[in-house]
Amino acid sequence: MKTYFECIPCLLRQTLEAARLTTDDKAIHEQVIRKVLRASSELNLRESPPLMAQRIHRMIRQMTGDNDPYRDIKDRFNYFALELYPELKERIERSIEPLDTAIRLAIAGNIIDSGVNHHINETLVHNSIEHALTAPLAGDPEEFREAVSEAKDILYLADNAGEIVFDRLLIEQMPLEKITLVVKGSPVINDACLADARATGIADLVEVIDNGSDAPGTILGECSEGFKRRFENADLIIAKGQGNYETLSDVKKDIFFVLKAKCPVIAHHIGCEKGSLVFLRSARGSKDYDRST
User: Fold this and answer.
1) Tens-digit pLDDT profile for residues 175-225
2) Strand arrangement, sheet containing 179-183
3) Structural domains in the chain?
4) Cα(233)–Cα(41) distance, integer angstroms
5) How far apart (Å, rounded) are the C-alpha atoms in residues 222 and 80?
6) pTM of the predicted model, to two decimals?
């Protein structure tokens, strides 16, 4: 997915929010903003938004000396999601359609996204949960069930800290021996890293690897050789969140995109309303895809 004009002010907003997390020094805020504005003027709009975001957050970390500006936010939502976990697990167990409910809850957790909304709070998460349990779902859980059954090696590309507890609810509905959870190689925004997978207990459930990258998505050219081999050899990819959609929507691989469409650009690109629950298979994986092409 390319970068749209509307993405640029969003990236600038994100820049200032991240700078303010690291320091109260307005002079540093100005330096960061000016440097990012210069970089924005050279932005290749054919590249995906996460590539620009990767460069921006590298600049912020270098200029402020803070390697993980969102660490407190990540810890807060890891803890909050773990508090919710027993109740959400019970909802799935009581559900007539446990897989459908688990998918919806996994999407609900995608609201924990500091890149889109720096002011995310516990009330918004609760509201997202209730909305996800009743709103229309753009996707077919039965097609997913069949794809999981046929696959031998499944990569689950995680998105944010805290959110990975919601992902656990969905992973627990699948054969655990098939699943490898993938987190980021180093901190960027509030994306989940190995420390978050360990802190939330998901690392005790399935194999967890990192992709060797600090991009808020999965830019294959930026990932480690080991991860790229795993990606190429996987039978099925579950890609969580908007960043993974932005970076993988054009990749020829069997991918289920699992997200809440939180911005109008993403919603327009997918062809849905903002706020929609998205659970869509890539054309490559669709039964209608012509594999002779």
Assistant:
1) 999 999 999 999 999 999 999 999 999 999 999 999 999 999 999 999 999
2) 137-138, 277-281, 255-260, 236-240, 154-157, 179-183, 207-210
3) 7-64 (1.10.8), 71-281 (3.40.50.10880)
4) 38
5) 31
6) 0.92
